[in-house]
């Protein structure tokens, strides 16, 4: 596997469910990000982890809970979501957070909340 | 002040034509301006980026033009090809950093054969 891998690619959940999105990067990077992509809206930065430490929480509701156990893995734990949370969730990585290094994105997890 | 305004929302160009996408920003602290390209079902990928110390950067058929005084930058795709059909996002951040990129809403480019 190369690059940034996200699973699952598609997820349908009810508002009372608990699920998790997983991201794994095989690039040896030290920074990982969660972005939310909704139709007709700009990509929204959610969280940044740099060397496993969370360095940014962009006012994200607590029903989204990130976890970064090591520099290669990033999770987004979901619980009691709302229908407006339906979107494509993109994981990205970069060498470090805070330089002009390229962000490498995964293909995303398409989330539908019923 | 954190917005990046991108236009047009969609663009149709004939093969061989020039595609032009424009972005404008307000935050004068922005000093790193990348463009990302996204194909359907894929994540965005960095296409080209510019810092404000230059007014133009060219990589193959892709050119960024930057106007610091007007706080505008644009992407030009020369000799557009059907394979260029994708969504293009401009972005900006401060501190010369990828740390908190502010993205535009995207432009869906269709290049007809």
List keywords for this structure.
heterodimer, A: 114 residues, mainly beta, 7-stranded mixed beta sheet, 4-stranded antiparallel beta sheet, 11 strands, B: mainly beta, 6-stranded mixed beta sheet, 57% strand, globular
DSSP helix fraction of chain B: under 10%
Shape of chain B: globular
Mean residue pLDDT of chain B: 93
Strand content of chain B: over 45%
- Main sheet record of chain A: 7 strands, mixed
Which consecutive residue ranges of chain A, at least 5 long each, have pLDDT under 50? none
Number of strands of chain A: 11
Mean pLDDT of chain A: 92
- Report on the biggest sheet of chain B: 6 strands, mixed
Using only C-alpha atoms, the radius of gyration of chain A works out to: 13 Å
Low-pLDDT runs of chain B: none
Q: Helix count of chain B, per DSSP?
A: 0
What would a concise description of this structure say?
Chain A is mainly beta and about 110 residues long. Helices cover about 0% and strands about 55% of the residues of chain A.
Question: How would you describe this structure to a colleague?
Answer:
- Chain A has 114 residues and is mostly beta strands.
- In chain A, 0% of the residues lie in helices and 56% in strands.
- Chain A is globular.
- Chain B has strands spanning 4-7, 10-14, 19-25, 30-38, 45-50, 56-59, 62-67, 72-77, 86-94, 102-103, 107-112.
- Chain B is mostly beta strands.
- Chain B is built from no helices and eleven strands.
- Helices cover 0% and strands 57% of the residues of chain B.
- The A-B interface holds A 4, 40-43, 45, 48, 56, 58, 90, 92, 94, 97-108 and B 4, 32, 34, 36, 41-46, 49, 51, 89, 91, 95-106.
What is the secondary structure topology, with strand pairs?
The complex is a heterodimer of chains A (114) and B (113).
Chain A: E1 4-7, E2 10-13, E3 18-25, E4 31-37, E5 44-50, E6 53-57, E7 64-70, E8 73-79, E9 87-94, E10 104-105, E11 109-113
Chain B: E1 4-7, E2 10-14, E3 19-25, E4 30-38, E5 45-50, E6 56-59, E7 62-67, E8 72-77, E9 86-94, E10 102-103, E11 107-112
Parallel strand pairs in B: 2-11
Antiparallel strand pairs in B: 1-3, 3-8, 4-5, 4-9, 6-7, 7-8, 9-10, 9-11
């Amino acid at each position: 596997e190369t690059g940034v891998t996200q699973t699952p690619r598609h997820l349908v959940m009810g508002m009372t469910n608990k699920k998790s999105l997983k991201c794994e990067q095989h690039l040896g990077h030290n920074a990982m990000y969660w972005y939310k992509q909704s139709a007709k809206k700009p990509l929204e930065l959610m969280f940044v982890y740099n060397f496993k430490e969370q360095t940014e929480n962009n006012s994200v509701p607590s029903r989204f809970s990130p976890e970064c156990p090591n520099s290669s893995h990033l999770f987004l734990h979901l619980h009691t979501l709302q229908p407006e949370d339906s979107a494509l969730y993109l994981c990205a990585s970069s060498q470090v957070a805070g330089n002009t290094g390229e962000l490498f994105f995964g293909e995303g997890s398409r989330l539908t909340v019923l | 002040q954190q917005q990046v305004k991108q236009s047009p929302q969609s663009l149709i160009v004939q093969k061989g034509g020039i595609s032009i996408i424009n972005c404008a920003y307000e935050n004068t602290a922005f000093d790193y301006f990348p463009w990302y390209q996204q194909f359907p079902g894929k994540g965005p990928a960095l296409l080209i980026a510019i810092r404000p110390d230059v007014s133009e950067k060219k990589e193959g058929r892709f050119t960024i033009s930057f106007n610091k005084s007007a706080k505008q930058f644009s992407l030009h795709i020369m000799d557009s090809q059907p394979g260029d059909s994708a969504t293009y996002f401009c972005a900006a951040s401060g501190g010369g950093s990828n740390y908190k990129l502010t993205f535009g809403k995207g432009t869906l480019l269709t290049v007809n054969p």
